[in-house]
Batch of 2 targets.
Target 1
Amino acid sequence: MRFETRAVHQGQEPDPDTGEVVAPIHQSSTYAFKGYRDLLEERQRYIYSRMDNPNRAGLEETIAALEKGRFGLAFASGMAAISAVVALLKPDDRVIICEDVYGGTYRLFERIMPQYRIERAYLDLTNPGGLGPNRGAKMIWLESPTNPLLKIYDIPSIAERKGEALLVVDNTFATPYLQNPLGFGADIVVHSTTKYLGGHSDLVGGALALSDGGLYERLKLIQIGMGAVPGPFDCWLAQRGIKTLPLRMKRHCTNAERIAQFLAGHEKVTGVYYPGLAQCPGHELAGEQMRGYGGMVSFELEGDMERFFEALWLFRLAPSLGGVESLISPPALMSHRYLPREERLRRGITDELIRVSVGIEHVDDLIADLEGALAAA
Ligand SMILES: *Cc1c(COP(=O)(O)O)cnc(C)c1O
């Protein structure tokens, strides 16, 4: 089956008892044994909803299939999925983290992990040679494209140099439609299903995909043992969203490309970050490892930030991304607000940087909105 077909069918066959084409929401915390014998001989798949439930099992199968992995694991949020991966680490383990990492991941590593004596090193991995001999790192943490500067990392080259480390790739921005890191040698793929997979800004969830059986057993134990699992309804919503992922991603990509071109030609815009633009440093690499350039665009405004944001009528000033509706935010006041200012500026996240999650509306309406706001700025 091809991607589009899997997105609609895998892990979502009609119910064998009722024929329901769409899986029902199995809103039950517990499952009755048919008899004592079934309990004695462990002959029942579903027992208690934290351990497993039909909606979660379906979603996990879908995500594994789309990421070309053998296993999927669903969580209550992207951060819960990330925390489960980080729980694989032991005191004195060393982690190499790409510099442009998601704010929540940075906070987890800097505010919570130090008490477990996890050593962290932030490296600019745009030159994989910079990884050097990885000096005994147990984990390498990567995002590509990154947030908010849309940097592209060479996943296959980093995988070649990972040594003993587990290579973890947060694939939230690219989605499995545009990029499959497991095929490039990554060990674990992370998703915030809150974003493109869910796609409608109506749920919070996370997921992992992987192929190694031993690693899966360890992560499964963490999933059910630490218990940050999603409810049946959120799994159902994520699965419903995934059915249209290919259609939405195509539109996100074409809209974002047009918007990036529009911004690049505007006099009040001093810089545009979008891997689909030939002048962006990650352009060639993105062409090799992705099947499209994604729906995220960032740019530098030369003008009044408040007047710009006040003049917008279609773009919503809100955090998050990946929904059908276009969202816009200044990372300095939103996703990167709590990064020390000096560190933030050193990473190139200026006060005038604006991040756009381009939705699936008509692109002419989106451009008209930006045009008006730029005129007002
Ligand atoms: C949103 C996001 C997360 C965190 O996901 P939540 O569902 O908000 O917990 C992690 N990584 C990336 C790249 C994200 O955009």
Target 2
Amino acid sequence: MNRYKLLTPGPLTTTDTVKAEMLFDHCTWDDDYKQITQRIRAALLELGHVSEPEYTAVLMQGSGTFGVESVITSVVGTGDKLLIAANGAYGLRMTEIAQHAGVNYVLYEEENTRRPDPEKIARMLEADPGITHVSMVHSETTSGILNDIQAVGEVVRRAGKTFIVDAMSSFAGVDIPVADWGIDFLISSANKCIQGVPGFSFILARRKKLEESAGKARSLSLDLYAQWRTMDIDGKWRFTSPTHVVLAFAKALEELKAEGGIPARYARYAVNHQLLVQRMEALGFRTYLEAEVQGPIITTFFYPEGAKFTFREMYQYIKERGYVLYPGKVMEAETFRVGNIGEIYPEDIEKLAAIMADFLREVQG
Ligand SMILES: *Cc1c(COP(=O)(O)O)cnc(C)c1O
């Protein structure tokens, strides 16, 4: 098989040393293993600039959506009401989660190119005192927009509500001072900016609010409070944990630290993004988002005017030459996406641009 690097926003390209950790079948009830889990939980709190006892970290089996579903269905109780601010598919997925579990919610939907407006959220909270929780996505991977969770967090805190943030594709790639920004529950996963492999999500939770959620969960396996209670004893997971993924993740955390932590990783992703935009614009591509709202994680491009090729053809050509792109997800325009995260460096972006230039010469003449 022809190997390639992923220019997709998770799963993403990981290092060989992270992958190598998975060659050992670790015992789950052994003390060494439980200590790895505890070290991971402590490291995650540190990355979020929070600490025990105000905050705690919980790991949850499954992909990122399992983590979001765990929080929404565990902490929004039957008498509560959730305001979901959405400007893309991942925000809207929260409404699906709420519908399936019978969680009472209202939707504030914004266009894919615009950030949810904190003033508007403030007015909605004022108009409907029944709203108890607010949730939104930080880096909306649908478009690559970076939402202003700091401003919304301030509004939510002033109104005395609970703030839930899906920071799946941004946590550890973009610095998030969790407590300072008024975040009560933050969700991310193993296979995004920490550069581990897929298999679990994690939640940074304000401990007091997590304790208040006891008995509210609608699901057995996704019960966040119950998961925390078990894990907090000594690091044992409630049900079988993805041991290989956990070992790989512990290594990925070490490598993040060795790179220089979040500031260094953010800088690398930002350089990847800027270089990508420069090179692609030189080839005639235009970005979907305005630069002011664009995040460093993933970049959406329009197809060039009058393009004589399909995404499939472009994808195939580039894949055969070592890189995999991502199709577009925004509804109203013909686009495709390029992820800037993972074990990707400026030389990869230069190579991609050269392959893209060859492709355009071949198809457009
Ligand atoms: C990746 C991602 C998720 C989770 O998706 P899974 O496929 O369940 O891992 C959720 N929200 C955002 C913004 C994401 O980028």
